[in-house]
Amino acid sequence: MRILVLNAGSSSLKFGVFDIEPNAALSEARQVFKGNFSRFGPEGCDYTTGIPDRHVTRAPYISLAEATDAVPLALEKAGMDGIEAVGHRIAHGGSKFAQAAELTDQVIEEIRSLTALAPMHNPANLQAVEVARRVWPYVSHWAVFDTSFHLANPARATTYAVPKIWRDAGLRRFGFHGTSHKYVAHRAAEELGQPLRDLRIISLHLGNGASACAIARGESMDSSMGMTALEGLVMGTRSGDVDPGLFGYLSRQIGLSIPQIEDALYCDSGLQGLTGSSDMRDVEDRAAAGDPDAQLAINIYAYRARKYIGAYAAAMGGLDALIFTGGIGENSPSMRRRICDGLEFFGLKIDHDRNMAVTLEGRSATQIQAYGARVNVIVTEAAEQLMIAHEVATALGAPAKQQMSIPIAVSARHVHLSRAAVDALFGPGYELTPDKPLRQKGHWAARERVTLHGPKGDIAHVAILGPLRSRTQIEISRTDSFALGIDAPVRQSGALDGTPTIRLNGPAGSFDTDGLIIAARHIHMSSDDARQNGLRDGETVNVALNDTGRGLTFSNVLVRVADNAFTEMHIDTDEANASGISSVIEGEINGAVVLQHR
């Protein structure tokens, strides 16, 4: 399948052509053409093309619309025919668009309604969409949203501490650069040879726009950008984090209106406001020549990024990899060094020679950490267009997967005990008494019970599930964590490193152990069912609940495939309560879901 990707900004149009089959792995996508119209002016614009060598010429197009109209001619000259779909980068998708969406008239109007949240980006994105739909009327057009990747962020990361009426009006944090952060996380996991769901990653997208993202075990957990693309790191012309009190102060002191202040924060701040230039290359050159404003700007830029690294490492309970991407992240060894210096205390240190010898050819992901450092540091390109093409191909391939009816069961709090835990709680050599078989073959609930003891209170009569495991694991709900007074992370079963310690009490004694988690929703699936429905171990799916009257969707549900598994989905009691589920129900994966209460 041949997919054209258009990435329209306020002052440039990047486009690329990719050959990729529906449902193909990201690594299987092949870019066959790359172009960029930029620096529009009364006398035309720059036209850059070429893979991997870049060739720059002048073109007569003075606007984004003219450049978009000219893309078919550019493709024809390059011999790029057979376009089957067009993917568009859209900056803001609000809280609705969690994945690629076909650009129908209704979807376009919904995107247009979000313009106030991305005034510099969504209008330019939509202008390109309108022109492209006219130029390529007989192929499907798809939107891929910068915000989609971050919709998995927990409420504690997305909720502003403001009056409820404001929150009800839609005030919340969204995050941006999602396609870039998602791609580099996958590329880093591939480079390290580890499953993405086992890694804690911080991605720094450092360009004219800049953001940091905490990616915990495959999902975005937090992002430095907020409701708009203004919050967070220092950027080319945007301020990043500021005290919101400045609106009242500047209004009272120098009579600025809200639109004037907002426009200055977007267009006249960041590096531009500090130095008069938004280009980090110029700022670095001026700093080396002794310009104090440029020197201060570089220090502020690096300091802000370093603060976010420390905060996100703490929020994730550790760090496995730091990724640099974007124009500055990819091309400035000195900025990478400035950001990383001082982080040796938690195992992050870069090697000078490796940092200076970074190459990005062939989608390279270059490791620059010092030998023996605990945290991997990787530099790779921001392949947003590649990620967009993959998302579109995935969306086009989705109907090929069959709908699958599965039971959805509620999993109450329980523990899986190790031999050492049983000995401490019930006495040396004690054997648990199987009382009730579970649906998963070979698993059972024991007659014995334990008590969970936390700083706020106890939870008694907690079920024990067998057989014994090599490591004790305690699964509770979010509400249970507040009853205990311990902040438990959402984890997949077995991902216990860095989890909180809790005390278990039994009739013969107590046992202090880590392993306290809120179990991420998942589907146990037999190998036969997985093969019949085109699903693989480790894949994630969405399951929509249409029959509960609340229109809820469980997203990013992990599929765990085993030969002897009984196929069913597990959710915890909080999720069941939010969904209005009181007993085992049935649902379907992919496509419309019809639920039957049992």
Question: How is this structure best described in words?
Answer:
It is a single chain. This protein has 4 domains: 2-145, Nucleotidyltransferase, domain 5; 178-385, 2-Layer Sandwich (Nucleotidyltransferase, domain 5), CATH 3.30.420; 400-407 and 521-597, Barwin-like endoglucanases; 414-491 and 498-518, no CATH class. With 598 residues, the protein is of the alpha/beta class. Helices cover 30% and strands 29% of the residues. The model is unreliable at 590-598 (pLDDT under 50). The longest helix is centred in the middle third of the chain and has 25 residues, at 292-316.
Supply database-style keywords.
single chain; 598 residues; alpha/beta; Nucleotidyltransferase, domain 5; Barwin-like endoglucanases; nine-stranded mixed sheet; 30% helix; disordered C terminus
Instruction: List low-pLDDT spans.
Output: 590-598
Whole-number radius of gyration? 26 Å
Based on the coordinates given, report the CATH architecture of the largest domain. 2-Layer Sandwich
* CATH top level assignment of the largest domain: Alpha Beta
Provide mean pLDDT, rounded: 90
The number of strands is: 30
What would you call the shape?
Answer: globular
SS class: alpha/beta
Largest sheet: 9 strands, mixed
Terminal Cα span: 43 Å
Q: Can you tell me the number of structural domains?
A: 4
- Beta-strand fraction estimate: 25-35%
Which range best describes the helical content: under 10%, 10-25%, 25-40%, 40-55%, 55-70% or over 70%?
25-40%
- What's the CATH H-level homologous superfamily of the largest domain? ATPase, nucleotide binding domain
The CATH topology of the largest domain is given as: Nucleotidyltransferase, domain 5
The DSSP helix count reads 19
